[in-house]
Design brief:
- The structure is a single chain.
- 50% of the residues lie in helices and 11% in strands.
- By secondary structure, the protein is α/β, with parallel strands linked by helices.
- It has a single domain, classed as 5'-nuclease (Rossmann fold, 3-Layer(aba) Sandwich).
- It has a 5-stranded parallel β-sheet.
- The model has no long low-confidence stretch (mean pLDDT 94).
Length: 161
């Protein structure tokens, strides 16, 4: 059985964006492309309505490309529990109100008990301090916590390395 994975908005964004002049962002784009081509098929991938809403923002042509990338990915249903857990995370993770989408991504992955949450958002999601607090909150509330990581961390085992 494949592991389950929540695909956060930054992944389709990095897949479809023009090559960045910023060397770090460019490296992230290339790693994301490699993960998409080589590792994606090893996971049962899910998104949420929040991902769809976010990727529709901005330039219409770019939005179309992002929508194309996710067209065959199963969409998780928004539920009352996801809303409640989002509010819990906003309050207890001390996230700013503007980070409601980030808290919602976390809530979807946790409420649905997925194995991984894949993101390049290292400010409010793939952040060591956030992960530590999230683990504590979820343990207290008996909510499962996925492994939150970047594509670089989820490249699999390479023989000979």
């Amino acid at each position: 059985m494949k592991s389950t994975l929540y695909l956060e908005t930054t992944i389709p964004s990095y897949l479809t964006a023009r090559q960045s002049r910023d060397i770090i962002v460019l490296a992230h784009q290339q790693i994301t492309q490699e993960w998409w081509e080589v590792r994606r098929m090893h996971y049962e991938i899910y998104i949420s309505p929040v991902v769809i809403n976010e990727i529709q923002l901005g330039d219409n042509k770019a939005a179309e490309q992002r929508l194309h990338i996710i067209k065959d990915i199963e969409i998780l249903a928004a539920t009352q529990e996801v809303e409640e857990v989002t509010e819990l995370y906003l309050a207890e993770l001390s996230l700013p109100k503007k980070a409601i989408r980030d808290a919602t991504h976390l809530a979807f992955a946790c409420v649905y008990g997925l194995d991984f949450l894949l993101t390049w958002n290292c400010t409010h999601i793939a952040n060591a301090e956030i992960r530590k607090k999230l683990n504590e909150i979820n343990a207290k509330h008996e909510i499962l916590t996925p492994i939150i990581c970047t594509p670089e961390e989820l490249m699999g085992f390479k023989r000979g390395v």
